[in-house]
Amino acid sequence: MKLGVMLFALCTLASASQGNILNYGFDDGPNGWRVVVLNHEGNFEQLGIGEDRWHSTGGNPGGYIETQDWSSSWTCFRAPNTVVGNRLSWYGGSIEFDLRTDYADNLARPVVLLKSAGLNACYQAVAPRPTWTHQAVPLTTPGWTKDFGGNIPVTDSELRQVLEDLTGIYVGTEWQISPPQETTGLDNFSISEPVPEPSALLALLCGLGGLARLRKR
Ligand SMILES: [Ca+2]
Q1: 206 CA distance to ligand 1 centroid (A)?
Q2: What was the pLDDT predicted at 201?
Q3: What mean pLDDT is reported for the chain?
Q4: Per the domain annotation, does 23 fall within a domain?
Q5: Which residue from 35, 170, 182 is spatially nearest to 106, judged by alpha carbons?
Q6: Are residues 108 and 207 in the same domain?
Q7: Could you tell me the distance, in angstroms and rounded to a whole number, from the CA of residue 73 to the centre of ligand 1?
Q8: Which of 43, 64, 140, 149 could link 187 by a cystine bridge, Cβ 3.0 to 4.6 Å?
């Protein structure tokens, strides 16, 4: 009986350590996110601040943030500075969010940019739809490039390097080049670390513990 209880406790602890480590629902405000304009033809230097809009309704669900494209450079949402630093533990996890835009020419463009001091990584994706479109960006190398145009792949060690010295997380809002200028919204931004291997073992032990408890009843 005591073994079963202990295994259940371990299983609960293991479950609590998994899943989302960051989650922004924007239901009570923009949560420290800003709209910025980056030089996508250079090294993604910040050129200016864009127009932030926060809405308390209309998200997926609840509040969300949005911006209207007004610049010929790259407009994007910037995550709060509190989330950067050494984030190597994110490698193998994922970044997920809901995005929507009202006008798009359906070309692949960066939907996420990870900046570090010496290297950048862009994840290329096709445009979201006018309705909330879920985006799942794996934190492993396929789909990541060093350049805005998507031509120079990021290697495995380079992606780890970026995560280890992360200085910025950005979500792209640019999905159409010619007028009318698009308005893009963001909701439910989350980052998940990979599930640690020992948890699978603990879950198995948990199940065995449960069976042992049932048999003793
Ligand atoms: Ca929301």
Answers
A1: 34
A2: 52
A3: 86
A4: no
A5: 182
A6: no
A7: 27
A8: 64
Q: What is the number of structural domains in the chain?
A: 2
CATH number of the domain where residue 100 is located: 2.60.120.430
Ranges of the chain whose pLDDT falls below 50: 1, 5-18
Indicate if 10 and 61 belong to the same structural domain: no
- Between the CA of residue 211 and those of 3, 7, 146, 159, 202, what are the distances in Å? 11, 11, 51, 43, 14
Q: What is the CA(27)–ligand 1 centre distance, in A?
A: 5
- pLDDT one-digit tens code per residue, 120-156: 999 999 999 999 999 999 999 999 999 999 999 999 9
Answer whether 0.85 is exceeded by the pTM: no
- The residues placing their C-beta within 5 Å of ligand 1, an ion, are 25-26, 59, 62-63, 187
| Greatest Cα-to-Cα distance within the chain, rounded to the nearest angstrom | 71
Q: How far is the CA of 185 from the centre of ligand 1 (A)?
A: 10
Domain region containing 204: 1-18+198-217
CA of 64 to the centre of ligand 1 (A): 5
Beta strands in 69-158 (DSSP E): 74-78, 94-101, 109-116, 120-125, 133-138, 144-145
